[in-house]
Automatic annotation (TrEMBL):
Compartments reported by the entry: Secreted
SMART domains recorded: EGF (SM00181), EGF_CA (SM00179), Tryp_SPc (SM00020)
Organism: Rotaria magnacalcarata
Keyword annotations: Calcium, Disulfide bond, EGF-like domain, Glycoprotein, Membrane, Repeat, Secreted, Signal, Transmembrane, Transmembrane helix
Protein name: Uncharacterized protein
PROSITE patterns registered for this protein in UniProt: ASX_HYDROXYL (PS00010), EGF_2 (PS01186), EGF_3 (PS50026), EGF_CA (PS01187), TRYPSIN_DOM (PS50240), TRYPSIN_HIS (PS00134)
UniProt xrefs under SUPFAM superfamilies: EGF/Laminin, Trypsin-like serine proteases
Gene3D superfamilies from the UniProt entry: Laminin, Trypsin-like serine proteases
Transmembrane regions: 124-148
Residues annotated as domain Peptidase S1: 457-712
Keyword Aminoacyl-tRNA synthetase assigned: no
Length: 713
């Protein structure tokens, strides 16, 4: 420790550096003190004395910035820090900021404390003011509430009232028990009914006529409607009771009408059988309050409608016509027994056969032999034998040498000449075909590999003239087709008056889309020209020039015919029957084919189709064989080629895949040669495939009843 002499007078006030007890030098706000680096310290860091102390700059009235409760002042055993006596002490001694070695308060410290308190007060004065104001307002509100309650507070009544009474506060100081009168309540407790107050407790509602107290609860304070209709005698006889709110009404039962009597209103029976008659096919019988229908003779009640009677078809239930030659015809409520076709009733009332051959010279044409049948007749082709061939004769077999006794020799010469001409024509046609096949062999091979839909038959075989005398052609007349007749469709002769073709050939809407017509006829049927038995349709050919032209009197299409106006259209009922304006006379070149009877087309049946095709510059009859495809495997491909095919059509394909039917072959007949050596019309060509040689044929046997009803001999 540094040695030196220290004055005995107190020098605590001159200190600028003191220790806060945390072994470091703290500098208190002494504005006159020098920095800590000027202080003299020992090895423990204890301040010994300031190196330089300018006491003259100190003011004894300046207080140090000492924080009460936070700082402590420590003194050490150093003369510079000795107490008033100057004694040295080893340990630190704590001095309070209020202690004074001279036994008086340090004016500097006192001044500092007062200044701090005043600073706090001046800084937060508005807070103290606001708190004071809140306290005063709260006190004032509490006082006001207490005064108000003490002035207006009602006095409580502690009276106990009897049942049927209520406590009433008359004023602030007086209350009493008063009797409750429910009849004075608003709204009224009894509603529309009057209220009766009991002398004691409670009340009663006075129920008026048509109302009563509930029968189940017997509540006198409620009223409910009285159901007068519960009493069966409320209304009179044959009357119905209708309950209403507070009342009831009466009305007459069904079948009765209201009348006025001296005793009031009554109900009497209404006669429903007065015109109009409510019964159908029956007699109306009036009953008390109703009526009933009694069916007329030949009728029976309809189960679902008792007012209607259905006709009894006696011909279906039992055949009342006992004669074998009679036909039962049902009529409304009855039936008729008429003689079958070919029979008439004699004087004994029996149906006997009519000999058409003896009675009518017009039964057959001059080139046919009439043969009477039981109930019918046949127009037989004159043959060498006496066999009667009505239709579909195979003209490859031996033929008659005369159509009648009068024309016997002439016909023989004609037939021989015709045969020679036919042989020559076949020879010439074959020569031309062979030459053409040789010159176009490569081209035809190319067509066969991928054939497409054509206009006419392709690669057909030649037909001998007169082989199929029922082949007909449908043409557009010259005045409606620019400069020359135009071949439209094929057809088949089936009687002396009728030919069969495809319905779409006579579908006017479809026809006008396919063909251009130069003029406008008075009727659509007038544009057609029919040629029958013509081998060569070329305009300059002898066959065409010498052929007979026929016009259409009328034609009939099936009711369910579906137009083939699009490629995807269904082939359905595509068959039509044409009636000509004049009768066809059988000859060596004109005859008709047989209609099918019970013939059903089977899978793999072989049919023959004859139509017209271009050979060089001529339009000549050609033929090809087709095979019926009626199995599921082949139908799939056929459907893909032709679209949808209805049940009344069948699919077929050429047996020779190089032969194809074209669009111009529509209406051509597909023929079946039956076991009795007759040709029957099996189908009518309706549609060809997009590729290959598929065709759709309308099955004629599916329409045989419709056709035979229209065909005329």
């Amino acid at each position: 420790m540094r040695t030196g002499t220290y004055p005995t007078q107190p020098h605590f006030d001159n200190l600028s550096y003191i220790s806060d007890g945390r072994d470091r030098i703290s500098y208190l706000n002494d504005p006159y003190a020098v920095s800590s680096r000027d202080a003299v310290v020992d090895r423990n860091g204890i301040v010994l004395q300031p190196k330089e102390l300018k006491r003259s700059r100190h003011n004894n009235n300046t207080a140090y910035n000492f924080r009460p409760g936070q700082d402590s002042i420590y003194a050490y055993s150093n003369a510079a820090f000795s107490d008033y006596s100057g004694a040295d002490s080893r340990g630190p001694s704590i001095r309070s900021y209020i202690e004074n070695s001279h036994n008086f308060q340090n004016p500097y410290i006192t001044t500092k404390r007062n200044r701090t308190i005043c600073g706090i007060c001046s800084k937060y004065w508005y807070i103290f003011g606001l708190l004071t104001l809140i306290i005063l307002v709260t006190i004032a509100v509490i006082i006001g509430v207490l005064v108000f309650r003490s002035k207006y507070k009602s006095r409580e009544c502690y009276l106990l009232c009897d049942p049927g009474h209520r406590l009433v506060q008359l004023n602030s100081t007086y209350c009493e028990c008063q009797l409750i009168n429910e009849c004075e309540f608003n709204p009224p407790v009894c509603g529309l009914f009057s209220c009766i107050k009991f002398n004691g407790i409670g009340y009663e509602c006075n129920c008026t006529t048509g109302f009563r107290h509930p029968s189940t609860t017997h509540d006198l304070t409620a009223c409910e409607d009285t159901n007068e209709c519960e009493n069966l005698n409320t209304c009179g006889e044959h009357q119905l009771c209708h309950n209403t709110i507070g009342n009831y009404t009466c009305s007459c039962e069904n079948g009765f009408e209201t009348i006025i009597t001296p005793d009031g209103i009554a109900c009497q029976d209404h006669d429903e059988c007065i015109v109009p008659n409510p019964c159908s096919n029956a007699r109306c019988i009036n009953t008390n309050g109703s009526f009933k229908c009694v069916c007329n003779s030949g009728f029976e009640p309809e189960l679902s409608n008792p007012l209607h009677c259905d006709d009894i078809d006696e011909c279906l239930r039992f055949n009342p016509c006992t004669d074998h030659n009679e036909i039962c015809e049902n009529t409304a409520g009855s039936f008729l027994c008429s003689c079958a076709q070919g029979y008439r009733r004699n004087e004994h009332g029996n149906c006997t056969n009519i000999n058409e051959c003896a009675e009518s010279t017009a039964a057959c044409d001059i080139n046919s032999r009439c043969e009477d049948r039981n109930g019918s007749f046949a127009c037989c082709i004159n043959t060498i034998t006496d066999e009667c061939i009505e239709c579909g004769h195979d003209y490859l077999s031996p033929r008659s040498v005369g159509m009648s006794s009068f024309t016997f020799a002439t016909s023989l010469t004609t037939i021989d000449l015709t045969t020679k001409m036919a042989s020559l024509a076949i020879s010439n046609s074959s020569s031309r075909l062979n030459a053409k096949k040789k010159s176009t062999k490569k081209i035809k091979s190319k067509k066969v590999s991928n054939p497409v839909r054509s206009k006419r038959m392709i690669d057909g075989q030649p037909v001998e003239p007169g082989r199929f005398p029922w082949i007909a052609a449908v043409l557009i007349k010259q005045q409606y087709s620019s400069s020359e007749p135009r071949y439209v469709c094929s057809a088949t002769l089936v009687s002396s008056w009728n030919i069969i073709t495809a319905a779409h050939c006579l579908d006017e809407q479809h026809f006008r889309k396919q063909w251009e017509i130069t003029g406008e006829p008075s009727s659509f049927k007038d544009i057609f020209d029919i040629r029958i038995g013509v081998h060569n349709l070329s305009l300059n050919s002898t066959d065409f020039i010498q052929s007979q032209s026929y016009s259409i009197e009328n034609f009939t299409l099936p009711s369910r015919y579906q137009s083939l106006s699009s490629e995807s259209a269904t082939v359905q009922e595509d068959v039509a029957l044409i009636k000509l304006t004049k009768r066809i006379e059988r000859s060596s070149n004109i005859d008709w084919i047989c209609l099918p009877t019970m013939i059903h087309i089977q899978d793999q049946d072989r049919l023959k189709v004859v139509s017209y095709s271009n050979i060089d510059d001529d339009l000549i009859q050609q033929q090809l064989d087709i095979l019926v495809l009626n199995n599921d495997e082949n139908k799939t491909e056929c459907q893909r080629q032709l679209g949808d095919i209805a049940e009344d059509a069948f699919c077929a394909i050429s047996t020779n895949h190089t032969s194809i039917l074209g669009r111009g072959d529509s209406g051509a007949g597909s023929m079946l040669f039956s076991s009795n050596s007759r040709w029957h019309l099996a189908g009518v060509m309706s549609k060809t495939g997009l590729q290959k040689s598929y065709s759709a044929m309308t099955n004629v046997s599916k329409h045989i009843e419709w056709l035979t009803s229209l065909v005329e001999r």
